[in-house]
UniProtKB/TrEMBL annotation:
Belongs to the class-I aminoacyl-tRNA synthetase family. It comes from the Eukaryota. It is an enzyme of class 6 (ligase). It catalyses: tRNA(Met) + L-methionine + ATP = L-methionyl-tRNA(Met) + AMP + diphosphate. It comes from Microthlaspi erraticum. Keywords: Aminoacyl-tRNA synthetase, ATP-binding, Ligase, Nucleotide-binding, Protein biosynthesis. Residues 199-424 form the Methionyl/Leucyl tRNA synthetase domain. GO terms for cellular component: chloroplast stroma; mitochondrion. Its EC number is 6.1.1.10. This is methionine--tRNA ligase.
Length: 610
């Protein structure tokens, strides 16, 4: 068995190792201290196994970018915390599409287990109806937030069940599943047995602040402990596997402290996928839901098996998750994949929490922010922009409405929206809304062009590094540079002077509108509707907007003779007590002093972690 395991580990390492240098892996022995109480027919499950072994030819080609959000529990409708991961994922997916990659953006809902069955009962529904309803509310919210996912998987989909069973059988055939009694403290909200060491007073779960319950069960176990060494090797050889880098230490110390086998079935829970050959037990939600990342890859009309699913896009390029579920993704999941002989995902990024009064916002704590209300009140662009700009991706961040309004007014309405509106107004008044020259010739010898090019590069690097707040900041800096140029050149005065001055003013407007065009593209992963509105006002069609690529951020897209649309505000200011609007004050202040760059620091908060 050690040899078999080493083959899959070797494959995993090869695929994680960009330079394909040979790893030296010492054989290790299995620690199966329990006997299986039931013997499955392993030949039945091992067929086709070799075909699934991952080799480099099997790897997702570099032009395909597969990214996933967690599959959300359907115990309650989505809150802003669940929306946060999805907004970030959508922005990353949109950026990768702009780079010309084929993107498979996977999201979905996690519908089995005790927590879901209990919430269905509490709502007087049968679990199936309950899941349909809540899963639909996720889809509705994604629509409202302009989330352009490619695949939506529900763990109650029959195709998912087929893949989970096949996966279970492969792990079983590899000798990694055994049966044993387990006694411990269980947090139903985490759907996890907890170590007493990590609990608060009265055995309370630190994430959900509710007491864990004592449980004793006869379960099937996954031999996680066998994978301790391989996991250590993988992480030391591929430190970028866990991001941000400061989360790697956490994962390494979990592993170092000793990995314990974990229970992968439940005897007391009916609402789940039956364990193959033992319908008295259901498969543990995590051993079920993680497989959604693979089962999502097939279409309903395709063959529903691991081989087909894997061939359609596995391994994932990026699992985007909250830090509370890092252990499942950076420890359990890679070990499960190794056991089944499948390639590991390329990266797991654990972001921080949206908090309220320092506590993780969540359904279980009941301290959530309503995303539907927020979108209806402020629109999808404001919501997307605020959370991605305000919270350094990876850190925690607290929400306040005052801050929300300050930021979106200052950045989207003033710096970006107003600049466009003023420029189009002047163009209409003085040039019949028509560009007098190409933007390339207008910008000859003008330093602003170089400034913008550097900021576009900065935005690109930040998007690539998943530093979404810094990407927003780079785009805002382009807006600031445009505003500064407008104020310094004062084209409205030059038009009044007439002659050569008026000609120069007409060129200035072309330059500023070119800046706006570049902003529209660079901002489109974050605020797609706003970007479309800007693009349309510049005289482009929806088709033209839909076919833009990151290359179009190069200076020179606007041509002489192009006619601009009628100016109308692209982002309506949110009205509020001006006293509270500290961010707007900063913008006004920076304009007076000529220091146009506005930098907003987020105070990271420390939050109790799972
Ligand atoms: N069902 C599991 C995931 C299975 S993935 C195969 C789950 N679901 S969840 O609905 O509880 O959480 C889904 C995601 O939402 C997690 O990444 C979690 O971190 C994130 N968030 C939930 N509340 C959050 C905040 N308050 N802030 C930011 N993200 C948070 O776990």
């Amino acid at each position: 068995m050690a040899a078999k395991l080493n083959t899959s580990l070797h494959n995993a390492l090869c695929l994680l190792n960009p330079f394909n240098t040979p790893f030296s892996i010492k054989p290790f022995s299995s620690r199966n201290s329990f006997r299986f109480s039931k013997k499955l027919n392993s030949s039945q499950y091992s067929s086709g196994r070799r075909a699934l072994y991952c080799t480099s030819s099997h790897e997702n080609d570099a032009e395909t970018f597969v990214l996933t959000t967690p599959l959300y529990y359907v115990n309650a409708p989505p809150h802003m915390g669940s929306a946060y991961t999805t907004i970030a994922a959508d922005s990353i997916a949109r950026f990768q599409r702009l780079l010309g990659k084929k993107v498979i953006f996977i999201t979905g809902t996690d519908e089995h287990g005790e927590k879901i069955a209990t919430s269905a009962a509490a709502n007087g529904r049968n679990p199936g109806d309950h899941c349909d309803l809540i899963s639909q509310s996720y889809r509705t919210l994604w629509k409202e937030l302009d989330i352009a996912y490619d695949k939506f998987i529900r763990t109650t989909d029959p195709k998912h069940e087929a893949i989970v069973k096949e996966f279970y059988a492969r792990v079983f055939a590899n000798g990694d599943i055994y049966r044993a009694d387990y006694e411990g403290l269980y947090c139903v909200n985490c759907e996890e047995y907890k170590d007493e060491k990590e609990l608060l007073e009265n055995n309370c779960c630190p994430v959900h602040q509710m007491p864990c319950v004592a449980r004793k069960e006869d379960n099937y176990f996954f031999a996680l402990s066998k994978y301790q060494k391989p996991l250590e090797e993988i992480l030391s050889q591929n430190p970028r596997f866990v991001q941000p880098s400061y989360r790697l230490n956490e994962v390494q110390s979990w592993i170092k402290s000793g990995l314990r086998d974990f229970s992968i079935s439940r005897a007391l829970v009916d609402w789940g996928i039956p364990v193959p050959d033992d319908d008295k037990q259901t498969i543990y939600v995590w051993f079920d839901a993680l497989l959604g990342y693979i089962s999502a890859l097939t279409d309903d009309n395709e063959q529903q098996n691991l081989e087909t699913a894997v061939s359609l896009g596995w391994p994932a390029s990026l699992h985007l998750i909250g830090k509370d579920i890092l252990r499942f993704h950076a420890v359990y999941w890679p070990a499960m994949l190794m056991s089944a002989g499948l390639t590991l995902p390329k990266m797991v990024f654990g972001h921080g929490f949206l908090t309220k009064d320092g506590m993780k916002m969540g359904k279980s704590l009941g301290n959530t922010l309503e995303p539907f209300e927020l979108v209806q009140k402020f629109g999808p662009d404001a919501v997307r922009y605020f959370f991605l700009r305000e919270v350094e991706f990876g850190n925690d961040g607290d929400y306040s409405e005052d801050r929300f309004i300050s930021i979106v007014n200052a950045h989207l309405a003033n710096t970006i929206g107003n600049l466009l509106n003023r420029t189009l107004g002047l163009l209409k008044k003085n040039c019949e809304s028509t560009l007098v020259v190409d933007s390339t010739s207008a910008a000859e010898g003008i330093p602003l062009k170089d400034t913008v090019e550097k900021l576009v590069e900065k935005a690109q690097t930040n998007y690539e590094n998943l530093s979404l707040s810094s990407a927003c900041e780079a785009v805002l800096e382009i807006g600031n540079a445009g505003n500064l140029y407008m104020d310094q050149r004062a084209p409205w005065l030059l038009f009044k002077q007439g002659g050569v001055s008026a000609e120069a003013a007409a060129k200035d407007l072309v330059i500023i509108l070119e800046v706006m065009r570049i902003i529209a593209i660079a901002l489109s992963p974050i605020a797609p509707c706003l970007s479309l509105r800007i693009y349309s006002q510049l005289g482009f069609s929806l088709d033209q907007f839909n076919s833009i690529t990151w290359n179009d951020t190069k200076w020179g897209g606007l041509k002489g003779g192009q006619v601009m649309a009628q100016a109308s505000p692209v982002f309506a200011r949110i009205e509020l007590n001006p006293e509270k609007n500290e961010e707007e004050k900063k913008v006004k202040e920076s304009k007076k002093t000529g220091k146009a760059k506005v930098k907003v620091e987020l105070q990271p908060k420390t939050v109790a972690e799972a």
